[in-house]
Structures are given as C-alpha cells and as structure tokens.
Write a structure and sequence with these properties.
Mean pLDDT: 93
Largest sheet: 6 strands, mixed
CATH superfamily of the largest domain: Glycoside hydrolase/deacetylase
CATH class of the largest domain: Alpha Beta
Shape: globular
Number of domains: 3
CATH architecture of the largest domain: Alpha-Beta Barrel
Distance between the termini: 36 Å
Number of helices: 14
Number of strands: 17
Low-confidence stretches: none
CATH topology of the largest domain: TIM Barrel
Helix content: 25-40%
Amino acid sequence: MIKIFHPSSYINERRYIHGVIFNHWLDIKYSEEIHELDYTIISFSSEKEKKKIILEDGLFSIPRDKWLSKESLPKCPLSHIDLSTMPFKDAVYNLKLPIIYGKKGNNIHINGDTIHIEIDILGSIFFMISRYEEIVKQTYDAHERFYAKASLAYEARFLNRPIVNEYLDLLCHCLKILCPNIKFRERSYKLFLTHDVDCPFSPNNKSLVGKIKTSIADLLKRKDLPLFYKRILFSTFSKEINRDPNNTFDFIMNTSEKNNVKSSFYFISGNTAGSIDGCYNLDMPAIRQLMKNIHERGHEIGLHPSYNTFLSRDNLKKEFENLLRVAKLENIKQDYWGGRHHYLRWRAPTTWQNWEDVGLNYDSTLSFADHIGFRCGVCYDFPVFNLLTSQQLNLKEIPLIVMEGSLLGEQYQNKSLSQSYDDIFELSETVKFFKGTFTLLWHNDMLISSRQKEIYKKTIRDIS
C-alpha cells in the first residue's frame, strides 16, 4: 500500500483524482493524510522520509477566489519536459511532454530513494478529465458546443495525443523505479464501436427537390451509380425497408461479428427540435423490430438524447424512460445503459449531472465535433466529477475519440475516405500503445455507398 500526503486545499478534488488514478486506473491500494507542506508526497510507507515521489502543486494551489477563473488557466505556449535522459526513455510514448501545470524548470530529479517531479501531474490530469477549461471559457459554436479550436489541446498541439495517459505513464515509470515489484491493473486494447441512429431509414416524404439533390450527390460526389439507381427506385416506388439505402444495420453487425466486436446503437427516443431530431419514433414497428434484432444478435442498445436535452434533466428523463419502456416491450434486458447526445451537444458539468440524476450508467459524448482526438486527454474510461458541486458522480465517461463526420464533414476537417482511414488507424495505434479503449462513432447513413462500405470494412478489420 502507498500513502499520499497532500495539502489541505481542494480536499474533494484531490480525493477524486487520487481515486481515479490509483484505484480506477492503476488498481493500487492507498491511504491519504493531510500535511502542511505545499506539495504532494507519494510514499511507500507511513512515513514521508522513506521511498517517495514528490509532486509539485499547481492547479490545487490556486486561491479559491481565482478557481474557475481565466487567471487559473494554463498559458500558452506551454513548456515541455525532455524525457530523453530518464532511465525509462525507451518506454515512453513521446520524449517531449507538454506541461499543463508545473514548476518553472519542469525537471525530474532522481536522488536515491526520492524522485522529485516538478510537474503537477495530479492537477493537470484533473484539468483535462473534469473539462475545467470549458466552464471557464464558455466558447461555443452555432450548436452551442465547445469546439476544438478553443481548447488548450488544440492551441498547444496535443489534441491527437492522450496527454493524460502520458502523465500516468510517467508516474508509473517513477513508481517502478522505487518499487520494481509494484503491480498495476492488467489492461488490453479494446475497440468500442458505436453508431448514432439519426436516420435509420430514408424519409419517403422528402421533397422532390431533396430527392433530386441527394440523387445528384450519389452520381457526382459519391460516384456510385448503383446507389443512385437504388435510391431512385426506393424513394419513388418502394416502401420496403430492406431495400432502403440507409438500412445498413445488418451490414454493420455482420462486419462487427466478423471482427469479434460488439456494436452499440444509440436511438433517439424523443423530439425536442423538429426535423433535426430524425424522422422516426420508437413505436414504429420497423424500429421496434430493428432494436429487437440488434439485441438478439448480442449488440447493445443505448440512448441518443434529442437535440434540446443536453441542458434539460426533465427531457432527458422522459426520453430515457421511453427507451426503457420500448426495451421492456421487446424483452430487451441490459445490465447497464449509456449513450451519446445528438450533435455531440454537451455542457460541463450540467449534462453529466443530468445523466447521473436520471440513472444512466455511462456517457460517450466527449469528442469535439470539429476535430477528432482526445478531448479529455485520455483513452481510459473514468468516473466523472461535477466542478460546481465538488462531488464525484457514479456516471462513467467513455471518451469518444473519432466521429467519422468530424473527418469527412466539409464544415469540419473535410478529408477523403482514404485520408480518414489513415487518421483513424494512426490514432488507434496510439491507443494500442496505452492498451486503452478506442471509441469510434460511425453513422449507419454514412455507409450507403460501396466506397464507404469498403473503407469501413477495412477500418474495422485493421483497428480491431
């Protein structure tokens, strides 16, 4: 067992981050004690003088009247620490590590049984996973979403690096130096494959102009003549669901099962914003049958709360209850329930608190819509923290790392399918390095062309 001696400020915040790191992520038994020094000591005995790691304070040394203020935010450009002289240099992800909070100098001193890390590892991790900066900056796009270019990760150019995992890795290497026999939680890489069901079927009531525009896009943009004919025939003559271009669910499940992956499908179960919330409801026979088929094949059903629920506990509650009602009617039984907000709308910490209050088990909304990468800086799940109440919640966040629309969207990164494959594969390799969870979102209605399906199958095969 290790013992953590820490200052008396921000007790709840410190206890939370200690629990996430040492209990949830590393599975190490520990105890805590307050001391009057202005730094944290991680000791391998009940005495501070024995083998120990000294960690500088940064975020948690901020005066209370400056907490959640612009003055408390890290300043760019960030300094970096050079790990090339460390004994574990060959085992780290990157030798240049950006420092969010730390002491001027940002060095690591190894002296016998003492390691002094001039970095606020604990506060920096807390900053990233609590989404501290999003409460302070409140910089939103047209959909009221905090966007990538407003984030420290984007400004300091580490959005494509799981900076929290790198900090954790550094701490583990230092723990190993002092205690070579210490054991950490066994981990293995996992692909968490998810699908937001926005448009399960093509709307037959689409206007003639809309049908013509979509069909022209099939020819000119997607260059898919068979899809052009299929869509024209379906929208003009047929109402048979199996011939609907958007009905790619069997293809998705077949691909997942071939690669020993479980897919999670998140359904919209209410409407708070009109047509932006899709063209279906859960009581449609075709939707009920689809949910039943997904469950019977061993995949997951989840919630995709409608557009105007991310700040409304009441609307979220109604939609979750509606999902549970239909699930019960179709004999869909699951031990846990989670999902992701429509349009990735999310607000710290209100949305998390609402999910906790209505009884959901996990959220997987946290990626930026306009750029792929590590919004929370980590590829592990974690219990969340409400910064306004200073309380840890039972809800877990499984961070989303890639939404295909972020890569392919003309208003976002505007990449080709082949470029998107390269970016997804590169990020998955990073996650594999840390034996983390790679969470990918791919919509069913983004798998309608032969080229989309080809790239999707290759992607899932190569990142599974």
